């Protein structure tokens, strides 16, 4: 693929901790054109008063440090600077942040569980920092439940030679609104596996981003979503390759059913001039199950150097293959069961990446419940 003549990075060039540096979005901006602003309940324009609560309950294995700190803590904002108005609003509005530290060379034997539960009483803002020090290993499960109008930022700082695996489960009540940025900063030879599962909520907009601070970083970003009637589920991925010899792989799959079910996936990968030896690929697949559902999928790949190990992207949206259903029906399987088997197969490869059996079975059960609606 040739060099880009119009740098994609202009979409992501603005970042600031100051809310005043971001204009209120109108919906005409490229980064907001798919998002129904009227359903954000004021998160984008400052009218969402922080009168609600999203509580954070953390369960961590021995040796992992969990702290509740104020915004004056030097670790807050050390890896990520807000890149849009909602993110800046969240940063300027949270009261306490949760900081989780996995000490150097510690291998956490059990997952770190973070349960974020909304009380449904109004808007709330949050901030979470996960620091995995050099040569340490950990798995973090972020679970979002309850009702909320919630905006937050999550920073993952993965040290040299460290490994962090994250499962983020959005299982909100039907009326919830959630806008979040998840940013991973990778050190030398660091490994980050992020798995996002989005099922609940009225409107959910998640922006996972990855940046590399030294060569050898390896990022694998996976997403699974199931969109029902009236839901808007949006995922905006950015992987910014700025140093040599790093890898990234992005795979997102979603299914949609019902009137006005809307999925949005934006996949941006930037390979800057100094990022020689980069190996990257991104893939999005959408399965449209009924009339009235809509999937927008926009992969973007900007390459500013000719010295890459590999770079590519693919995107497709379509309906169930009639021949697959016919094949199963011809062997005595009823239509509804045949349909369920095909959709389960569509997600199977992704579900295998969830190493925590309890979470994997729960997600599979949630998908089955969606199919039975």
UniProtKB/TrEMBL annotation:
Domain SUF system FeS cluster assembly SufBD core, residue spans: 120-346
Gene Ontology process terms (BP): iron-sulfur cluster assembly
SUPFAM superfamilies (alphabetical): Stabilizer of iron transporter SufD
Recorded coiled-coil stretches: none
Superkingdom per UniProt: Bacteria
Entry's family note: Belongs to the iron-sulfur cluster assembly SufBD family.
Matches recorded under NCBIfam families: sufD (TIGR01981)
Name of the featured protein: Fe-S cluster assembly protein SufD
């Amino acid at each position: 693929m040739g060099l880009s003549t119009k740098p994609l990075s202009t979409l992501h060039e603005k970042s600031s901790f100051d809310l005043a540096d971001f204009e209120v979005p109108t919906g005409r901006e490229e980064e907001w054109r798919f998002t129904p602003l009227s359903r954000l309940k004021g998160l984008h324009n400052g009218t969402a008063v922080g009168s609600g609560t999203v509580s954070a309950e953390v369960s961590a294995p021995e040796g992992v440090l969990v702290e509740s700190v104020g915004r004056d803590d030097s670790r807050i904002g050390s890896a990520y600077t807000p890149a849009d108005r909602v993110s800046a609003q969240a940063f300027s509005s949270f009261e306490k942040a949760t900081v989780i530290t996995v000490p150097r060379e510690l291998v956490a034997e059990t997952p770190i569980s973070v349960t974020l539960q909304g009380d449904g009483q109004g808007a709330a803002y949050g901030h979470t920092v996960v620091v995995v020090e050099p040569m340490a290993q950990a798995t973090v499960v972020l679970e979002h439940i309850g009702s909320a109008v919630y905006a937050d930022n999550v920073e993952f700082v993965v040290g040299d030679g460290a490994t962090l695996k994250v499962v983020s489960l959005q299982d909100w009540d039907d009326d919830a609104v959630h806008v979040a940025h998840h940013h991973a900063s990778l050190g030398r030879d660091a490994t980050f596996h992020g798995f996002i599962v989005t099922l609940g909520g009225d409107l959910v907009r998640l922006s996972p981003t990855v940046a590399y601070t030294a060569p050898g970083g390896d990022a694998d970003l996976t997403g699974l979503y199931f969109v029902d009637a009236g839901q808007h589920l949006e995922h905006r991925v950015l992987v910014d390759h700025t140093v040599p010899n790093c890898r990234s792989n992005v795979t997102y799959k979603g299914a949609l059913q019902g009137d006005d079910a809307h999925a949005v996936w934006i996949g941006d990968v930037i390979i800057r001039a100094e990022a020689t030896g980069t190996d990257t690929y991104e893939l999005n697949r959408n399965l449209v199950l009924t009339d009235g559902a809509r999937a927008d999928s926009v992969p973007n790949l900007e390459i500013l150097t000719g010295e890459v190990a590999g770079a590519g992207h693919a995107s497709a949206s379509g309906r169930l293959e009639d021949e697959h259903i016919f094949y199963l029906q011809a062997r005595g399987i009823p239509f509804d069961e045949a349909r369920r088997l095909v959709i389960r197969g569509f997600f199977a490869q992704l579900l295998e990446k969830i190493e925590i059996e309890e979470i994997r079975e729960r997600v599979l059960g949630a998908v089955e419940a969606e199919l039975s609606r």
